[in-house]
Every structure is written in structure tokens, then in C-alpha cells.
Amino acid sequence: MVRREKANYMIQSVSHALDVLEQFHGGADEIGVTELSKRLKLHKNNVFRLLATLESRGYIEQNRVTENYRLGLKCLQLGQTYVHQMGFLTQAKSTLQEMVKSAKESSFVAVRKASTIVPLDFLEPKNAVRVVSFLGMSLPLHCTAAGKVHLAFDSEEGLSQSLPEKLDHYTGKTIADRRTLFDQLKQVVEAGYALEEGEYMEEVVAVAVPIKDYTRTLVGSLSIAGPAHRLTQERVTKEVVPLILKGGSELSRRLGYNS
Fold this sequence. Notes:
Helix content is 44%, strand content 18%. The chain has helices at residues 12-22, 33-40, 44-56, 73-103, 145-152, 156-162, 178-191, 233-254; strands at residues 60-62, 69-71, 106-113, 116-123, 139-140, 194-197, 204-212, 218-227. The protein has a six-stranded antiparallel sheet, sandwiched between helices. A hairpin with a 6-residue loop joins β6 and β7 (204-212). It is elongated, with a radius of gyration of 23 Å.
């Protein structure tokens, strides 16, 4: 099969909308339709439709006095999210290294994206049998330790919106009953960590803790994962849980969280 260049998949209208946004970078605070039309070499009607679309989504707003346009709050929110995630990853790197060094198991940090969990950074020990690299995967919420952490500290409204009525089975140990899952999530809040034993992948055990920032908001999770024959119940209880609770607490503190 012939591999197509990414340029072949570009959507012209989306590209033009991004061109509009980029006109505000490093230039005037406000720009009018006529000026944008000249810069982009597009008809005024096309520019107006692009602006109207961006305005409806909050990326552009119009000054009702001058009738010119400027960047909207949505751009600021996206920028803050990017900066925040990069800061989170920078701070998390040393914690991941400590988890891997001490536990001699894989460790990763993840964030929630809609109804899934997405690992952003993943480290594994040297000279150890690889379990699986979760990096770049979209993991389910209800049967992963990281997912349960994010569910447990969510609001009731957010929780009900995140979970479908029918929960998918991944292994014979997957908890697919909502009431049973909700009871387990209460235990996660009380204990401060979530445990998953072969619910998403057979013979894989994972422990996760919440990561919070200076606003006391849950911004991610820290996990340690490994094969069940190494992460026995005794080892998890005596070694892994105290280690990851300490690591999660220290990472949250570096992000400004104060309990």
C-alpha cells in the first residue's frame, strides 16, 4: 500500500482557520476583517465565516466598539493546559525514576482525556522482563488503577457522565457491575490509592495514586505496574503502596498542593 503524505489529508477550511489564529501571534491585539482578508488573500466573506465559526467556539471574540477581532479565552485556556501538562511532566520525571529504582517495576504518569486514561510518560527498569508499555495508549477508566483514581476523585455528576451503563469486560476479573465499582471507588478515596489485579490485562498488577496541584485539583495519576508473579499481595501491601503514596505526595507537593 502506498503511504500517503500527511499533507494529502489536510482540510483546507481547517488550515485557513488556523491561519486566522496565527495572525494574532506577535502582532496587533485586534485585527479587522479587511486586514485579515489582505493578509490571507481570502475573500472577505470567507474570512467572516471563519471568524464567526471561531467566535462561536470561544477562540476569537469581537470588540463591539471597534468591530475588530481578538483572541478569545479558549486560546488562553488551551495555552494554560499545555504549560500545565509540560510542568507536570517535568516535575514527574524524577518521581518516575525513583519509583522504578526503588520498586524495580515499571512506572508511569497519566492524565484523563474524556472517558479514557492516557499515559504521558512511562519508565521501566533495566534488565527486567517488559510487561507492556502503556505510553500512547488510551486505557479504560473502570478497570485500570489509574482510571479508578480519576473516577474516585471525580464529582458524582462527572462520574455518571464518564461511565457507560454497560461496562466492558477485558478479563475474567474485570468489574463490570456499576454498584460494585462505586463501592470500590469509595475505598480508593479512603485508602488514597487504587489497586488493579488482572482486570485490564491478565497477570498484570498495578497500583495508582492521585496527583493534585496548588488548586487542589486532580491533575493526573502516578502508577506502578508489573507482572502478578512479582507484585504479590504481600509485596504490594508492604513495599509498593507505601512507596507510591510517598512518591505521589511528594509530586503533588512540588506542584504546589498543600494538604
